[in-house]
Give the backbone structure.
Amino acid sequence: MRFPSRLLAANMAFALLLWAALVVLVAVVGAVIAINGSLTESAWEKAAQVPRWYALFVGVALVREYLPMYIAHGQTRRQFGAQGAVTVALFAPFLALLLVLGYLLETGIYALAGLEQALGQVHLFTDPGQLPVVFTEYLVEFLAWIVAGAFMGAGFYRWREGGVFTIPVGVGLVLLAESTVGPGLRLPFLLGRLGRLGLDLPKSPAVALAIGLAVLLAGLALTWSIIRDVPLRNRWS
Amino acid sequence: MRVDVEDLVVTYGEVTALDRLSFSLEGGKIYGLLGRNGSGKTTLLSVLAAFRKESSGTVRIDGEPVFENEGLTSRVSLIRDAGETTDLGTAEDALYFAEWLRPHWDADYARSLMDLFGLTRKMSVKGMSKGMRSALGVVIGLAGRAPLTMFDESYLGMDPPARYAFYDALLADYMEHPRTIILSTHLIEEVSSLFEEVVIIGRGRLVVHEETQTLLSRGTAVTGPAERVDAFTDGLTVLGGTSLGSTKSAMVYGEIDEARRGRAAEAGLELGPIAMQDLFIHLTGDAR
């Protein structure tokens, strides 16, 4: 199998730009709050809830944009499936690494400013300095969100509005993974009580990694079951 | 590349888009694929390019089934106006992936085509006019140099000068790099001079598959004094006609034998070719 270098590079370059923009935004917002004297927690921790939505978008775009492009360029669904799987498996740790870098940057800035980098939410880690655990938490989270996006994106691409039936499964994949690194879905502004749904799972990096891997494999298998013979959309003429 | 289609059926729910379609193309030529809206052209090309699977029947390219056959699909290219290969951000992004995924990609040729159509690499595809997007599709289709290259009305959005530049570029590149090219179009008169063979489908079925010259020879324009034209064409299949004063020109479908040609000459009538579009209208006019 050919290594998906350009698919990865394109997504990584864009993610890097978004990460830089997020860093600037968090720095500006954090500075404004600090000037008012009320910055008592990690600002990056709050901002770190946004990238998972980007991860979901990447999963959707993988099927909706790149699958048709691959096929139109003479690649098979099998070739795309393999390259897409590798892309997800490598892009999620890349995103997690960017999140870790964000915490590291914040640690330095807070230390210079004499601020405490306290955490306001339940995590797998108890201190932003636990870098391997921080990396593990976000890795598991991004794996789940990307693969859930790919699965739901495949459902909507194939069945249009019928894809709505893939949402419960996609949410289930995310819920399972999120419950290994925190209280659960953590979607405070969405879905009401469902947004706070969680499973009571043991919180350890090993369990999180094992379940994250299982979610990844299950999500990829489910996505493959939809795209393995999916027709490209066209206007009938 | 040789194309063999046998009893091909494609259905969309209750709708049958292709209905036991069969034909063969020996390859190495420029083929015209003609048909009215809804005749099944896009569906046929989509099956040939493995964009979708047939419901039944067989499609073979160089003797092998094409769907999920990576040895074959990498040698097949279909450019549609749906924009699968172009709608990725900037023109540069589209070329970036085309170069990577197309085994026969010619970057220099792509660059010269970009110049020809007035495209720049930094242009956002979503911000392009329809004509520019079509031109970008044409660049990717031609520079991909796939042994089986198909364009599904993907150049219709281009303005006439750009379309004629495309026809010239296509012909020049085909002469330099012979391959099988299929053009699906409604602009029959513009493109018909490129076709070596023509496949016409209607309601998902084959209407005609012939060499262009053979097809054109089926139609004749009979011109002369109105009453003599009427007398000559009596009993023949007349597709239509025009009159100017006492002079009339009638389009006749079907072979005109030597005896009839002799009678036409005696009557002072001129016999000439008719346009492919007129034949197309006749052949597909009752297709629904």
